[in-house]
From TrEMBL:
Belongs to the Nudix hydrolase family. Its cofactor is Mg(2+). It comes from the Bacteria. This is NUDIX domain-containing protein. Keywords: Hydrolase, Magnesium. It comes from Tessaracoccus antarcticus. Pfam families: NUDIX (PF00293).
Length: 258
């Protein structure tokens, strides 16, 4: 086999790891990347070492992951290969402060490359007439239940409580989720897991005082009768709200009981 080498281009305290495209076994590539990375970070006191590579280079991806590099991003259709086929380019990086070896290093790498799901926390509130509280957003036509996207490191329950406070100024404490639904891809969104909590029935004075507290995101709030849900929410949302109103609890997929 011809000699294989890895080069490091350094600008300030950031390095770019590169090598010529050639067939090489995974063990050789891993050893070369490991030595080059350790030498560059330690000898040149780099804070960051980056590698950009085609997404279809499975051997290189595995070698980088075994050397402690974490996936940071994907550039779609960014490189031409072969017969002018377009492939995505993946951005891997290793920081000087990143754990590389042991369980924490392995977990950190895997956390960057394994699939992640969006989580959403919503709540169903009713008034004394049995109407459901919906929010009218400024970015789409269909209305939503109060709530929203759960932030990183936040539980679905806490996320739903926070979103309800931010949107309509209502301090609530939820218990177990009434429905947990898997949502298929929709309108450019990837699939997601949604937790829907039963907020119970508001007294007339509390219901009358509900207003928008986040005017940048919401245009208005509305109390909607169950029979009118289809006029304002998606089919999926209507299915789930009606399930909860019927007393059904559990896990669903696309708003349908398993």
């Amino acid at each position: 086999m011809s000699e294989f080498s890895v080069q490091v281009e350094i600008t300030g305290d950031v390095g770019m790891l590169r090598w010529q495209e050639q067939r090489v076994d995974s063990e050789t590539l891993e050893a070369a990347v490991s030595m080059a990375a350790d030498d560059a970070i330690i000898a040149h006191e780099l804070r960051r070492l980056q590698v950009d590579l085609p997404a279809n280079d499975v051997v290189a991806r595995r070698a980088l992951q075994r050397c402690g590099f974490r996936l940071e991003g994907r550039l779609r259709s960014a490189q031409r290969v072969g017969n002018d086929d377009l492939v995505d380019v993946l951005i891997y990086a290793r920081l000087a402060i990143d754990p590389v070896y042991g369980p924490q290093g392995f977990s950190g790498v895997m956390d960057s490359v394994l699939p992640m799901k969006r989580m959403i926390g919503h709540a169903v509130f009713r008034d004394s007439r049995g109407r459901v509280l919906l929010t009218e957003t400024r970015y789409k036509e269909d209305w939503e239940l109060p709530g929203g996207i759960v932030e990183a490191g936040e539980s679905p329950r806490v996320g739903a409580e926070r979103e309800v406070m931010e949107e309509i100024g209502l301090a609530v404490t939820f218990g177990n989720a009434a429905l947990i639904d898997w949502m298929p891809p929709y309108l450019g969104w990837s699939d997601a897991i949604e937790f829907i909590f039963d907020g119970g029935t508001m007294t007339d004075d509390v219901a009358a005082g509900i207003t928008v507290t986040d005017p940048r995101e919401l245009a208005a709030v509305h109390w909607v009768a169950p029979e009118d849900l289809d006029e304002h929410v998606t089919e999926l949302s209507a299915r789930r709200i009606r399930l909860l109103l019927s007393g059904w609890t559990g896990m669903t997929e696309d708003g349908r009981p398993l």
